[in-house]
């Protein structure tokens, strides 16, 4: 009998296609209780499409490949089962025990063949410490949401190590050239060298193993990972090794000192093509290739010349070097620079730069649709293909933000007026946070689901709760109509997480005002607390709405304290200080109820990458630096702020306590508050916190629902 069953199982496996098996394995990982009752069938369609229907007690998903099958599975889970699959491995997937039937067959076709996801910065702000289990869930999430063009930057330092050895550099010089792990994204983008290096060899080796797993799984799910190519960024030692090469110094980026500046080898120099070939050949040996290469020559940095002919020669040289090494090469690059530096990237310069590359051989990521779709100001990128992207997050900030309806309008406008060279939809988020639904929504727009925005929001409310509920539907309509009304900006974390100041915000990295009335958000929080759900996603929503509302309230209290200071009302000032201190404690305690909002997880993950305790301490310091001071003498302090449990308690709250003490002392002594002097004290505290590896004490999670109700009453919200 066992032999018969074995051969029957073997026959079933041997009859299935690799795509069907990949989709089946994904279902087994995500919804194991359903996997045996879902049948995947591959069709011969040449475009991306999926179909759903019931067949007896089974659910059948027919699609052209594994990626479309995964998207079809997610369509079923979201719209029939009220299921949310998170991009975090630690978030459970909760689904009903009984599989719902598909009473009417569904067929959905893709509107566009490319669905891009990730940002170079995400590898720093979110994923530097990730292990395979984290990546495995994210890859599943990407497949479920139809992503088929993920950025794949992991592990490239090992390739560069091999290349630079050939050019006479020692391993010590090469590892010193690299930054610390959390800052590698900006090293890869030619922004900084050396900072917090040398990079441990253990890190370099472990990332190669991880990247091989990532690429294998992504390709199994019909994704074409975007690998890297040479951008001209070279170690300073090459100036001595090749004294005749055209190597220029890149001006310092974001206030970093001279020792961290980068160096640029012109693509017009013959050495550029040689290095490009060496890198791409070594990368293909190590990781294979899908012939799509992410290269950004001038991300937030100065070009050697802003003459259109020079820019065209540089662009042409960069592409020609890729094509010489890989005749199938397609160059993918960020359109961020065209938005960010419009002073230099004039229409004439953009046109010269793009049209120097053969038609269709360069694809632009239109990076920031919620603010400025660049296709509208560049004559549709002068005919070169582009992918419309929603950014939505800077620095991994934790804040409820996004322009839901406006993003929808801009996506539809691009499909209508954006030209035939609009070849994709995607997202370029800098970090993960509390607004996952916005990215799911944008990626859904790449498919002809026939679901209106209103219905999409209703379905979202059901899958966050686990069931249909009119109160939840009202809550989510209010959120998308009244709260998610402004595009993302930097920085966008509540004032409680910013350096204290008397008025407004202390620096451009700490912009905190909101465009809605906090009373509206508090009302939504209260209404959501009426819904009797036990879903993790529901609890997460309670925590995130609550911490945002409390953070907004904190800003109001700061303004009251400022008014008390200016009117010399010391009793009112003391009252404000007492409430604000307690509020900081409560914000930290509420954040502790959601594992997404955890400094402990960030630091523990960093430690777990190490082989020795010294290495673990180094990783923790590197992790602490990025999310606080960012870099020594750097102008982007507070850029990567996080409303995280543990971080509020150990870093943000002590800064505010210092401020409270200074303000009250000034009022008692009758002297004027000196903000410049206070900022010096803040900077000393910030530097010490980032550099030290002192123990941090964390709040234990409590019932978010009970605690939220207590907080609403406590602060009379």
List the helices and strands and how they pair.
Layout: H1 2-15, H2 18-30, H3 32-35, E1 38-42, E2 49-55, E3 58-63, H4 66-79, E4 106-109, E5 114-117, H5 122-125, H6 132-144, E6 149-150, H7 156-166, H8 171-177, H9 184-188, H10 201-220, E7 227-228, E8 233-234, H11 237-241, E9 247-249, E10 263-265, H12 270-287, E11 292-294, H13 308-325, E12 330-334, H14 336-340, H15 347-355, E13 362-366, E14 386-390, E15 402-403, H16 404-417, E16 422-427, H17 436-444, H18 453-465, H19 470-483, E17 485-486, H20 518-528, H21 536-566, H22 570-591, H23 599-607, H24 613-626, H25 647-669, H26 675-691, H27 704-714
Helix pairs in contact: 2-4, 6-10, 7-12, 12-13, 13-15, 18-19, 19-20, 20-21, 21-22, 22-25, 23-24, 24-26, 25-26
Helical residue percent band: 40-55%
- Largest sheet entry: 8 strands, parallel
User: Overall mean pLDDT score?
Assistant: 95
> How many distinct beta strands?
17
Shape: globular
Percent of residues in β-strands: 5-15%
> From the alpha-carbon coordinates, what is the Rg to the nearest angstrom?
26 Å
Coarse structural class: alpha/beta
Number of DSSP helical runs: 27
Unreliable spans: 4-12
Q: Distance between the terminal alpha carbons, to the nearest Å? A: 68 Å
**For the largest beta sheet, what order do the strands appear in spatially?**
6-5-16-14-13-12-11-7
